[in-house]
Design a protein that fits this description.
The complex is a heterodimer of chains A (111) and B (117).
Chain A lengths: L8 E5 L4 E6 L9 E6 L6 E6 L4 E2 L4 E4 L5 E6 L8 E7 L14 E6 L1
Parallel strand pairs in A: 1-9
Antiparallel strand pairs in A: 2-7, 3-4, 3-8, 5-6, 6-7, 8-9
Chain B lengths: L3 E4 L2 E4 L5 E7 L4 E9 L6 E7 L5 E2 L8 E7 L2 E6 L8 E9 L8 E2 L3 E5 L1
Parallel strand pairs in B: 2-11
Antiparallel strand pairs in B: 1-3, 3-8, 4-5, 4-9, 5-6, 7-8, 9-10, 9-11
The chains are: A mainly beta (111), B mainly beta (117).
Chain lengths: 111, 117
Amino acid sequence: DAKTTQPPSMDCAEGRAANLPCNHSTISGNEYVYWYRQIHSQGPQYIIHGLKNNETNEMASLIITEDRKSSTLILPHATLRDTAVYYCIVRVGYNFNKFYFGSGTKLNVKP
Amino acid sequence: GAVVSQHPSWVICKSGTSVKIECRSLDFQATTMFWYRQFPKQSLMLMATSNEGSKATYEQGVEKDKFLINHASLTLSTLTVTSAHPEDSSFYICSGLPRTSGSNEQFFGPGTRLTVL
């Protein structure tokens, strides 16, 4: 069962930063937060993951609150190609390999 | 790196027939592969976990006799939908967990769209 809640949709202007929130209030100390996105009719694409510290890569930044109960994915300069459904996933603690997807956030990047 | 392919990308079959979907990790070895199903406008639902050389484990509510999974090598897992019916029409997606992955990041295939007439 998914352990995350996300807003169903968000809009963002092209070129602006997109900030996608995720709540995971029941996360355990050894559970990672992963972010994937799915562009229509394709397989999910890995974006970033983290445990406690903030993380940054070439695609995005991940900000995790100190209590780890929520996180925010930041796309610094959104483009039209970033329009997708973004999934925040907490890897299940007692079975480290499984991902249970929540409903995700549909990000609409507008010109 | 870390590419997963699926074949076929789409398939149409008649009700009552069986369909096999292949999932291959092209540039890594995957001791574990996962199979998901996604209905239109819904999220991905985990169906089963496939471990190389052993029986797959199925999520609650998924019929193991209907969805046969074989993971015969470190680069190939297959999902066979037996006696398919229209309600089995869906988007089937696999993912692979690299053998050497320390972060347990899954790499997903492009998906297979199954339509049962």
